[in-house]
Amino acid sequence: MSLRNVAIIAHVDHGKTTLVDQLFRQSGTFRDNQRVEERAMDSNDLEKERGITILAKPTSIEWEGHRINIVDTPGHADFGGEVERILSMVDGVILLVDSSEGAMPQTKFVTGKALKLGLRPIVVVNKVDRPDERIQEVLDEVFDLFVSLDATDEQLDFPVLYASGRNGYANEDPTLREGTLKPLFQKIVDHVPPPKVEVEGTPFTFLVTLLDRDNFLGRILTGRVNSGVVKVNQPIHALDSDGNVIETGRASKIMTFRGLERVPADEARAGDIISLAGLTVATVSNTIADTTVNTPIRAQPIDPPTLSMRFAVNDSPMAGREGSKVTSRMIRDRLEREAESNVAIKVTESEDKDSFEVAGRGELQLGVLIETMRREGFELGISRPRVLFGTDENGGKTEPYETVVIDVDDEFSGTVVDKMNQRKGEMTDMRPSGGGKTRITFSAPSRGLIGYHGEFLSDTRGTGIMNRLFEKYGPHKGNIEGRKNGVLISNGVGEAQAYALGPLEERGVLFVGPGETLYEGMVIGENAKTDDLEVNPMKAKQLTNFRASGGKDDAIRLTPPKKMTLEQAIAYIDDDEMVEVTPKSIRLRKRHLDPHERKKASRAKAAA
Q1: Contact in structure between 381 and 374 (CB atoms under 8 Å)
Q2: What pTM, to 2 d.p., does this model score?
Q3: Which pairing describes strands 235-239 and 245-250: parallel, antiparallel, or unpaired?
Q4: What is the distance between the alpha carbons of residues 11 and 52, in angstroms, rounded to a whole number?
Q5: Contacts 24+ apart (CB under 8 A), 551-559
Q6: Under 8 Å CB-to-CB from 444, ≥6 apart: which residues?
């Protein structure tokens, strides 16, 4: 059976996973009566809830005597490390572009990586049935993008298909609105070359690109067989990037992909994408090979992390009430496991051994990690994100910059430009994008964008769309003003009382409601003024002969409190605050709960 290995790459929400659903259906992977969930490749809970792909996942379909291995990739820039790794497994890419939105920042990022590896893309203009489609302009944008990324003449001569992934058709004619995906299957077979690998007479080699765990099989390593043949129980060893042997073992289980399933196989040959069990130490970017091989396969370098957060043991007065995993040893083991399988994350332990600096690509990537950990029963204290600074060749301070593409209604464009200027962003492009909307492109320091997304949604009445992508390390931009408002801080321990919260509403926006348990140093709301204010939200009504327990003055009407999601809380906090994350709650608090400690710390900061 002839083999093709292909990855589907695109910007977030341009329809990759939906297209894979239709490829499954039209290739006969599913039975006619089989019940299949929508976006079948988004298999974990967070992916289903958020409607985005977080992990790169391989699958396989058979079509007219051809086996096509497909890798579905994340579309968000924060998960770019997943895309960078899997491109070494494939021989071609399908670049999916929305017929209205066109080439977006993430499209540029993944396409640049693919072109650098010499892969020749198939361009699929998706969602051609949109009423606001602008197919020809989008194609021109893609061509200009390829030129700007130094594509070769062969890569610039890309085939184009016009598709609707949801409706299951692709055509070479942009005017057709019906049909099947047969033209896409045919284009993959014709345009993507079969794997250039040696099967006979060469020893087995295999580069690990994905790492997974199974309760029964242990560590599962996924990648493409580079050369030779591997059979069950064959002796193998793992090499690091310098050629040192990490461990020796046997290939206890070989699994290939068939649709959504992993299927056991007796052997795998060069070009196959497989999962391998039997080793306990080998990890991503290691080479697994026959015991006679001493030269590792070169792994693709991964772009460095740009943002870090401090993960600390939860030391609030309510620690240990809701979570089952609260010690630093448990947190360390979990973070080390994550760093093993996710090469875009770096973990370093602090000197006090009670906290860990976790560096990653962005707030969303680290937010997904925190959300995953809290669902596993962890309790954590999370600091404000901070960018990782660098130095240039002259010893000057540098910081990460991001390309920010904003689609916004014309009436809000002035507000957005003003806010981005305050955050030291420089506008590089501004043009109408049709339908009363404007597309504005900025080059802005990552530091200035922390916490801006919530403010941006408020400024644009929830209609604006912001896309960000790491651009470069550039000169340090100096001081950037942070959050303008102070916070309301609880000055004691107890339950919040409606009687006390009523008057506090006049001072700002509350984050807590009546009956919630509070502690000293907990942030209960946002102050309308710039300074922090300690308040007593536990004060109850004094019951005397003159103050009856009933009566009309008891009917206090409170505005519902503002409840933040995890990402909103992380973006909101200031440098002297933390987010307390437990399986059931997200609370904001000051780093120093004691007011005297807070004053001491602020004096020390002012002196520095």
Answers
A1: no
A2: 0.80
A3: antiparallel
A4: 11
A5: 556/498, 556/499, 556/501, 556/502, 558/498, 558/501, 558/502, 558/505, 558/510, 558/513, 558/514, 559/505, 559/510
A6: 401, 402, 404, 420, 423, 424, 425, 426
Distance CA 14, CA 107 (A): 10
Q: How far from the centroid of its chain's Cα atoms is residue 526's Cα?
A: 29
- The whole-angstrom separation of Cα 80 and Cα 268 is 29
483 burial (CB, 10 Å; 0-12 / 13-18 / 19+) is middle
Q: How far apart are CA 199 and CA 106, in angstroms?
A: 36
Give per-residue pLDDT as tens, 27-79: 766 555 455 555 555 556 666 666 666 667 788 888 888 888 888 777 666 66
What is the rounded CA–CA span in Å between residue 245 and residue 233? 19
Q: Interhelix angle for 413-422 vs 452-459, to 10°? A: 160
Tell me the C-alpha to C-alpha distance, in Å, between residue 469 and each of 443, 452, 527.
10, 15, 33
Which tokens go with 568? 């909103």
Task: Answer for the pair 128, 167: CB distance below 8 angstroms, yes or no.
Answer: no
Beta strands, E only, 476-572: 487-490, 494-495, 508-510, 517-518, 522-527, 533-535
427 vs 330: CA distance, rounded Å: 45
pLDDT digits (tens, 9 = 90+) for 353-385: 778 999 988 788 888 899 989 999 999 999 988
Helix (H/G/I), strand (E/B), else coil: 531: coil
Digit-coded pLDDT (tens) for 112-156: 888 888 888 999 988 888 888 888 988 998 898 888 888 888 888
Angle at 80 between CA 76 and CA 82, to 5 degrees: 110
